[in-house]
Write a structure and sequence with these properties.
Rossmann fold; four-stranded mixed β-sheet; 2 domains; alpha/beta; six-stranded parallel β-sheet; 14 helices; N-(1-d-carboxylethyl)-l-norvaline Dehydrogenase, domain 2
């Protein structure tokens, strides 16, 4: 890859899906029994290192850890150190607010079954907030000594590679630009310190995100001519976990906090030796992650991006939301047609019609949540890349299955280049 290039990946797994109801929610966790909970030294031994300060992480991973610890401290690994990797003002404000208080609100709004939910929960799982460019030596120390789990959600930019990230970074004198290069340096420092292997749980919405991140980091390490022992440490000792996250987090609370829907899922592919940050009822450890990936990508994510495509081509109102679109036949009718004629037949051919139909019903409920302000303008960020990732796989699957369904609207949307 060249400077600034981002990796894009698809999957085409055709194995049968298990029913979601047969999957076990997290109940056991390697390493949990020995989790540190010394409040007096919380900042000095945080076992969870998180790259990213987004509202999504605040209302998902960080929220899960806070809830688990509040219910039973033995169900959470410990506190979180968050790392800001961007230089924008909003991220800086979040980092400063977290550094000042270590607490933030998450407001959960929507429907859970027949119940209306509107509750605000204070989260206190984060005890340290750092900026990578200002605290790089400290991050090296943290990774060498304290960290057991690394979590990330750096969006598409996180998987970019940069020419300026060269082998001299291993000396620790300057901060790498790319996230994968940061990991390569941090893990190299941990390897040299003789520390135990670590679990990495990327949450970026990329298929096989753990495998992909491992390959990027190993590629960087090989390009820097690190020794074979370090490469083996990365490939054989560190645990790179594929996972899928799902929760609509529609709005930030300024300066830090989030508004989110009741639905939440963190589906984690089972691996030996992995250490999880907590146990929570919305976390699922599964042997068939493709089941969750396919449903979310081809129904929920595809639906969001198609609404954004319609919004852009129709020059929709700047503040138009998903709910507004679902109430407007000019938007909803084309989306329902695509779901019915261009997506569901693929699931039917896979023997998953009933599962997909049930999941799609839940997607409609989530799209029609009257409490969330989920702006199409937000969904439309990186729109052209999202179209490829969310439309192309279902077209390819239809081809693999030799389905004669045309998929005219999806193909036309892929070919069109829209401007905001």
């Amino acid at each position: 890859m060249w400077s600034g290039q981002t990796a894009t990946f698809f999957w085409f797994a055709l194995e049968p899906f298990p029913s979601k109801r047969t999957e076990s929610r997290t109940r056991t966790n390697a390493g949990m029994a020995n989790a540190p909970h010394d409040v007096s030294d919380a900042i000095m031994n945080n076992p969870i290192l998180q790259f990213g300060t987004s509202r999504f992480l605040q209302a998902h991973v960080d929220f899960f850890v806070a809830e688990a610890a509040r219910r039973d401290p033995s169900k959470a690994l410990g506190k979180i150190t968050v790392v800001q990797t961007t230089s924008n003002a909003e991220s800086r404000a979040r980092t400063d607010a977290l550094r000042a208080t270590g607490r933030y609100p998450v407001r959960i709004r929507g429907r859970r079954g027949d119940e209306t939910v509107d509750v605000t929960i204070e989260c206190d799982s984060i005890s340290e907030a750092l900026h990578a460019s200002e605290a790089w030596p400290l991050l090296l120390q943290r990774t060498e000594r304290d960290v057991k789990v690394i979590v990330s959600n750096t969006a598409d930019a996180g998987y970019a590679l940069f020419d300026e990230d060269t082998a001299d970074l291993l000396e620790g004198r300057r901060t790498p630009r790319g996230f994968a290069a940061k990991l390569a340096v941090l893990l190299h420092a941990r390897f040299r310190a003789g520390a135990a292997p670590i679990t990495l749980l990327p949450c970026e919405l990329i298929s096989h995100n753990g495998d992909t991140l491992r390959d990027l980091v190993c590629g960087i390490a090989r390009g820097w001519n690190t020794d074979d022992a370090f490469i083996r440490y990365l490939t054989d000792d560190c645990v790179w976990v594929n996972s899928l996250v799902d929760r609509i987090v529609s709005e930030p609370i300024v300066p830090v906090g989030a508004i989110a829907e009741p639905y939440a899922l963190w589906a984690i592919e089972r691996q030996p030796r992995m250490v999880l940050p907590c146990e929570h009822e919305d976390m699922v450890v599964t042997d068939d992650l493709a089941h969750y990936e396919r449903l979310k990508l081809l129904l929920l994510n595809l639906g969001h991006t198609m609404l954004a495509e319609l919004w852009r081509t129709r020059d929709g109102a700047p503040d138009m939301t998903v709910l507004d679109a679902m109430r407007d036949p000019a938007y909803r009718d084309p989306l329902e047609t695509i779901w019915r004629d261009e997506v569901l037949p693929v699931f039917t051919a896979l023997g998953q019609h009933d599962v997909a139909t049930a999941y799609l019903a839940s997607v409609r409920d989530r799209f029609e949540n009257p409490f969330l302000v989920h702006r199409l303008a937000d969904i439309a960020r990186n729109h052209e890349e999202k179209k490829v990732r969310r439309f192309q796989p279902v077209i390819d699957l239809a081809g693999e299955l030799k389905l004669d369904i045309g998929q005219k609207r999806l193909r036309e949307a892929l070919q069109a280049t829209t401007t905001p």
